[in-house]
Specification:
heterodimer, A: mainly beta, 7-stranded mixed sheet, B: 126 residues, 4-stranded antiparallel sheet, globular
Chain lengths: 107, 126
Amino acid sequence: DIQMTQSPSSVSASIGDRVTITCRASQGISSWLAWYQQKPGKAPELLIYAASILQGGLPSRFSGSGSGTDFTLTISSLQPEDSATYYCQQTDNFPYTFGQGTKLEIK
Amino acid sequence: EVQLVESGGGLVQPGGSLRLSCAASGFTFSRYSMSWVRQAPGKGLEWLSYISSYSTAIYYAGSVKGRFTISRDNAKNSLFLQMNSLRDEDTAAYYCARGAYCNDDGVCPLSSFDSWGQGTLVTVSS
């Protein structure tokens, strides 16, 4: 199985800050990488797919990059509503696997 | 509007069985792959199972293989998860999620999940 490792596990940042979350795959997954946002008590929401394509209707402050084994989710200017847990997921092959999550808090 | 609504969760004793359902609407259900994902209380997401649009391709996570069975009824726009031999560690919120749009032959590309249900809670406890 492909292991997905996110860092950091948690991060605290201020409104307007640039925030970066990384995800590393245990083997190459090309660009088969998605990012999800999950708020407490809610279902996850797809943010980014194919490593860098922003899901329709979402703010452009979210961006993704990377290929192979190393990936990044960036929030360019943090907003209060971005407080959530973020997960990466590989869809290169089965079993699909998620990272352990990164909890983002607003200072 | 795409809607996925799970049902069938509840309290079950260890060793028991439960069948989850996911009712889909707002899209052509028969043309999409589907998956089940769960989340134990306070924990992360765990992908469980995948089924292609015509049920020709099915995959399971190792943690549930041999105990859980995914199926679908395209005529009824419904996805199912039959869960047998339940354990304490199966306690979680269970989500259904929509995958890729599949071709006329039922071949589905690899895909992330662009729509999720609200989840149904399964509690395994004596």
